[in-house]
Amino acid sequence: MLEAAFWGFVGGGALLLGAAAGIFLPMPRRLIGLIMAFGAGVLISALSFELMEQAYDLAGGRAALLGLLAGALTFFAGDWLIDRRGGHRRKSPTGPQAGAASSALVLGALLDGIPESAAIGVSLIGGGSVGVTVVAAVFLSNIPESLSASAGMRSAGHTTRSILGLWLAVAGASTVAAALGFAVLSGSDPAWVATIQAFAAGAILTMLVDTMVPEAVEHAGPLVGLLTVLGFSAAFLLSIA
Q1: Pick from 182, 55, 207: nearest CA to 117
Q2: C-alpha span between 208 and 206 (Å, rounded)
């Protein structure tokens, strides 16, 4: 459980690195978009070859598909509610964060990050080593996510303290989510483990298409496709190394 918490913190800690870069470094919007595209590609590879493939191997196609759909619907519903509270375009460096409630921004960040962290904890079940590709994917995607959102919050007038406090809270929640993902499911029926892995994959995939990729395209244009493929390729090579 402690190992799962540690790796959850590693993945979530990237949020603080990205937030610091978004606050203190002058980052062109185009560069932010390209970084987001690379991170999206890494996550797509991880959810394909780590989460869904393992879910299928554990319990077959039915459990994997049901988990995937449940994760997608859950994220969609949560994202819709957060959008209505002012948390829409929370990943954008030019988003309307000035009018967003702090609670909506926090809930949005948690909604985006918790499935990823739970997947890290689940990858340790069975006595194996941590899923390196999953950790790397979460780490690499969290940096541009918090970088972009923090730049937008900073330009909208949020204080450095409030921005870093938000991401610190999310990093802490990510740590807990990874630990719980391991503790709750350790020793469980493989079908449950597979369903949760697929659930995380569905939530992550929906998040990518709904929020992360559109923001990347808006700020970086046609090159987003190539950077996404590069991110996917890098994670794929890591998974087969």
Answers
A1: 182
A2: 5
DSSP letter, residue 95: S
Which CA distances in Å does 155 have to 116, 143, 146, 159, 220?
A: 28, 18, 14, 10, 19
The predicted structure's pLDDT at residue 126 = 57
The first and second tokens of residue 189, run together, are 């029926």
**pLDDT averaged per 10 residues in sequence order, the chain, 241 residues:** 79 85 82 86 87 86 91 87 67 52 59 74 65 76 77 77 86 84 74 85 87 85 93 86 69
Residue 95: predicted pLDDT:
54
Q: Is 139 helix (H, G, I), strand (E, B) or coil?
A: helix
CA dihedral 189, 194, 197, 199 (to 10 degrees): -100
Locate all alpha helices (DSSP H) within the chain, ordered by sequence.
Answer: 2-24, 29-46, 53-82, 102-122, 132-155, 160-185, 190-207, 213-220, 223-240
Q: What is the pLDDT of residue 130?
A: 64
Q: How far apart are CA 38 and CA 18, in angstroms?
A: 14
pLDDT recorded at residue 99? 42
Taking the C-alpha atoms of residue 146 and residue 150, their distance in angstroms, rounded to an integer, is 6
**Residue closest to 237 by CA, chosen among 31, 9, 29, 46:** 46
Q: 């000035």: which residue's tokens?
A: 98
Chain Cα centroid distance, residue 91: 11
